[in-house]
């Protein structure tokens, strides 16, 4: 009989059968037991090791399950042919070199990508969550509709209709975990070999995402009304990605005339579409909100994308996309099998949050807070800074400061950074070369800074300019 | 002066300025006010309408913002040139034709895709959620790491190491909203023009997803040990998608020898990888769990994908992917800009659920429940059915019943359906033609049925066979 001497570890807490299984597996791996070799019968091994036969049975069964040994009728158990056995050892966990550096902390960060989280209605959110997680609603944990739960889609369609003029049925809405995901899905709906036109400057993440799709990306210059339609026609693009209500970064509001020209461009060819990214239009500090481009679309050409990242919080990870009817048909044809990416609990909480008016109250509150910060920033720029002009104000969560002095953007960012003020250069938002006669400009986000911080930040900035 | 007679609606709750703005906008849209026409000055219109001048100012300002009119210095306000104005009317919401029919309710549904939700620890989940949503943890609502929060990734890596033998650092893990999303991300990491080999039969959703990527999909026949490696070599695939611990649908456990052959296949070419979809290996009812294929990989070739859909609940929408080091580098190069798709609140709740042992307790509880249903199903098949054989049992949440009678699968499904029993045919899981000598087979999922329901369901089935 093969030597199967083994020492049992009585204190390790491991079952005897596991120890026998491990020992034999190691013997096979080390090559001490070779392919085709016969193992002792369970009875013999049980006698030899002085354990019960069922213990050896269990060990053999596990070895059988994993394919280390095979059973031949009336002959017994044999070691399997195994092409090559790597030694299984727990590799010492290596620290990856791709860990992101935790960013340097600045005292005053004028990021356009943060929102004020201190005013989040934690109490309401918690209360709704608690009510959602009651024991008899176990359907909450079953897989939901791929487009998102109908209740939530109805709430979103009402909200979009009243606040943004968007015309859609809940059936046209797809709820997804963030805009990036919705764009990934849209790629599957639209297909390959697409030429997409972006405003230049633009939201660079969208640029990178379209680029990662292998889309042909065309940067279309802007005038004071937004994307230049003459250049769009020349580009031969199939798809134009625009932010008509408050363009990022310029803050330009596309006037109705330009919108109509864009819609006509799209209507000219069957495969042309417009993506309207309506990322921050909840926030407008003068007059009424600017209606969406989708509101003027009667040719079924606008793909409308919105998010709760700005209006509620970035970590909520809930966005939505309104598909034109003809793309909805294609969605059901090409990708109905992609499951929803948003937990049904989260969908239910958000639905109640909107339906019961908490969302509107929250928006009204945030609009006041952001308006005050917006006004403070404008006032401070006038009070402390010379040789700068402001554009893109009155809406959203950022504005643009054009600097007319001799300093480069880089110098300004560096000098301010040394004094604890984090600034964001507008030149980063251009695709390709900067326009001629380019003057340094800063994207000043104010959503995450209190009024006193804005004032101090701008005072520090005045020392750098 | 242009005729701007308008009737104010004193009871509609709308501000006067909005009514003036709406009236002028409509006049422009209807063509009553033409391009280039001059509007009355704000003072004149205010006098005429007997409203305050600031009211008219606000109306004009909104029209300016939206681009209906323009202001010429010292001359006044003029109607803009607008290429074409569609009439804005709220289209009557149409019912979409793509609404899914709500599925017919069956009394006994042997779906392999459901889990038992009645045993979900609602109390624990609610308690952890409540503790997560405390007011001073506002960082919960800021955007997190694209791969998922480090705390959760550490918990997952510990769990994978101890329960599945997976060797990885938390830096290799990407948390995402479901397997479908992780595959979408993987497409961006791996790139285009890929030939992927799938076991045949297989999980059809994966097949459809790879197909939607434009990947060249090869169906590789299986023998009793899983994917045939000779056919894999012939296929010239770059990527093989396998379920080694409990193949869907066959339930085959890939033996160690076949695993080594697959690993060797992958190691032969730089660009070859294996995707291990370890979808239900938490549940094994005999012996120890089968270790993962990744545990035997020492060439950095296995992309390991797991999910909490089976172990916790489908609606949780949290899956994870362990990338080999070299693909991790490519992830950071090609798609670091895709934001995480899982809410940080959910990540935090799940992390505490795992870290504090609730997950392990839940798994132990569910394993007992499912084992009892598994055993009941096996016993009932023996008791009530003749001319059938069972395979793929002892693990996961389904088994295969091979039917040796004269009936077709379709007939069986229809007959049982008429009596309220929903069955799933195995022929649906084949890519392309069925193998020669194909015999009807059913995929019997038992996770969502109580023991008594299983017994009744199988008794009904016995009347149909």
Percent range for β-strand residues of chain A: 5-15%
How many β-strand runs of chain A?
15
Structural class of chain A: alpha/beta
The strand order across the widest sheet of chain A is 4-11-10-9-8-5-6-7
Uncertain regions spanning at least 5 consecutive residues of chain A = 86-101
Q: What is the oligomer described by this structure?
A: homodimer
Give the helix proportion of chain A (percent range): 25-40%
How far is the N terminus from the C terminus of chain A? 88 Å
Arithmetic mean of pLDDT of chain A: 90
Largest interface: A-B, 116 and 116 residues
* Sheet with the most strands, sense and barrel status of chain A: 8 strands, mixed
Number of helices of chain A: 14
Q: Overall 3D geometry of chain A? A: elongated
Sequence of secondary-structure elements of chain A: HHHEEEHHEHEHEEHEHEEEHHHEEHEEH
Provide the gyration radius of chain A in Å. 31 Å
Descriptive overview:
- The structure is a homodimer of 465-residue chains.
- Chain A has 465 residues and is of the alpha/beta class.
- Chain A has helices spanning 16-30, 42-49, 53-66, 122-132, 150-164, 179-190, 204-212, 229-235, 256-267, 325-334, 344-355, 358-384, 409-418, 451-464; strands spanning 69-72, 76-79, 108-109, 173-176, 195-200, 216-223, 226-227, 239-242, 273-277, 302-307, 319-322, 388-391, 398-403, 421-422, 441-445.
- Chain A has 14 helices and 15 strands.
């Amino acid at each position: 009989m093969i030597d199967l001497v083994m020492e049992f570890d009585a204190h390790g807490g491991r079952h005897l059968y596991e120890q026998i299984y491990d020992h034999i597996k190691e013997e096979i791996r080390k090559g001490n037991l070779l392919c085709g070799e016969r193992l002792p019968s369970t009875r013999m091994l049980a006698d030899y090791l002085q354990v019960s036969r069922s213990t050896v049975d269990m060990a053999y069964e596990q070895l059988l399950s994993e394919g280390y040994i095979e059973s031949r009728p009336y002959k017994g158990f044999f070691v399997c042919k195994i092409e090559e056995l790597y030694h299984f050892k727990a590799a010492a966990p290596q620290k990856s070199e791709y860990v992101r550096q935790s960013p340097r902390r600045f005292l005053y960060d004028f990021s356009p990508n943060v929102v004020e989280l201190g005013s989040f209605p934690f109490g309401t959110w918690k209360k709704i969550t608690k009510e959602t997680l009651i024991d008899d609603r176990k359907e909450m944990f079953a897989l939901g509709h791929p487009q998102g739960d109908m209740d939530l889609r109805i709430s979103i369609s009402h909200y979009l209709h009243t606040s943004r003029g968007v015309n859609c049925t809940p059936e046209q809405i797809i709820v997804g975990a963030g805009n990036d995901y919705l764009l990934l899905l849209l790629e599957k709906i639209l297909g390959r070999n697409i030429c997409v036109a972006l405003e230049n400057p633009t939201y660079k993440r969208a640029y990178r995402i379209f680029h990662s799709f292998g889309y042909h990306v065309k940067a279309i210059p802007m005038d004071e009304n937004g994307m230049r339609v003459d250049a769009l026609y020349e580009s031969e693009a199939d798809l134009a990605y625009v932010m008509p209500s408050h363009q990022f970064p310029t803050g330009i509001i596309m006037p109705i005339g330009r919108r109509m020209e864009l819609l006509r461009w799209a209507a000219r060819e069957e495969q042309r579409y417009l993506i309207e990214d309506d990322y921050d239009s909840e926030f407008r500090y003068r007059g009424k909100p600017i209606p969406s481009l989708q509101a003027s679309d009667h040719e079924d050409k606008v793909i409308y994308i919105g998010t709760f990242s700005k209006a509620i919080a970035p970590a909520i990870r809930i966005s939505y996309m309104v598909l034109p009817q003809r793309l909805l048909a294609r969605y059901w044809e090409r990708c109905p099998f992609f499951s929803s990416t948003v937990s049904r609990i989260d969908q239910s909480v958000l639905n109640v949050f909107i339906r019961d008016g908490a969302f509107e109250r929250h928006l009204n509150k945030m609009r006041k807070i952001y308006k005050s910060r917006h006004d403070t920033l404008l006032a401070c720029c006038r009070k402390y800074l010379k040789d700068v002009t402001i554009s893109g104000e009155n809406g959203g969560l950022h504005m643009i400061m054009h600097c007319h002095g001799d300093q480069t953007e880089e110098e300004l960012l560096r000098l301010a950074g040394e004094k604890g003020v984090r600034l964001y250069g507008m030149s980063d938002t251009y695709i390709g070369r900067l326009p001629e006669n380019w003057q340094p400009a800063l994207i000043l986000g104010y959503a995450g800074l209190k009024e006193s911080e804005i004032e101090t930040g701008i005072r520090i900035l005045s020392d750098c300019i």
